[in-house]
Automatic annotation (TrEMBL):
InterPro entries: CBO0543-like (IPR048147). This is CBO0543 family protein. The chain crosses the membrane at residues 6-22, 29-54, 66-85, 97-114, 126-145. The keyword Repressor does not apply. Keywords: Membrane, Transmembrane, Transmembrane helix. It comes from Cohnella silvisoli.
């Protein structure tokens, strides 16, 4: 049990340090994506736990939530924010797909290793490919929604100007 808590603390520290890799000019984008992703992962996390597909025997806030607060509300949303802030917008479609695939694959490998070696997550009726697919879908959703959100023209009002 001690190993699980060491891993949770390490994930919190590592995730917190990821903010330093977000370019300053993309910080608003990353913050938006983090909040958007938290909504998605909260819903998906609750569904998979309630359906009995995944169990989180060791978790933060165990009496309040059956999902993994550390992954659903912190680690994955921050990684998703970093993903969007550093997205290779001007690269080829092949490179963009590689970018998506790399993030999904690395996160899936980490989850599978944690699932096999700890009590932080137990797959009941789940498999690694479901993790990969849901990560891919949420990365795509966050990318599409953030592009749409930041493309909406918002009139800028300057203090002291006459707006009649």
């Amino acid at each position: 049990m001690k190993m699980e808590w060491i891993i949770l603390v390490a994930v919190w520290l590592t995730t917190s340090s990821l903010f330093f890799f977000i370019p300053r000019k993309k910080l608003r984008l990353a913050q938006f994506v983090i909040l958007f992703t938290q909504v998605i992962t909260w819903l998906i996390g609750l569904v998979v736990v309630q359906l009995g597909w995944i169990d989180y025997p060791v978790r933060c806030f165990a009496s309040a939530n059956m999902t993994s607060f550390t992954f659903e509300y912190l680690a994955y949303p921050v990684v998703c924010g970093l993903f969007n802030a550093r997205f290779p917008e001007n690269r080829s479609i092949g490179f963009k797909l590689f970018y998506y695939g790399s993030y999904c694959t690395i996160l899936t490998i980490v989850e599978v290793v944690i699932e096999k070696n700890t009590k932080l997550i137990d797959y009941i009726h789940w498999a690694w490919y479901w993790t990969w697919i849901t990560l891919f879908i949420t990365f795509v959703m966050s990318r599409i929604f953030s592009k749409w959100f930041f493309s909406v023209s918002v009139p800028q009002v300057r203090i002291g100007e006459n707006h009649e």
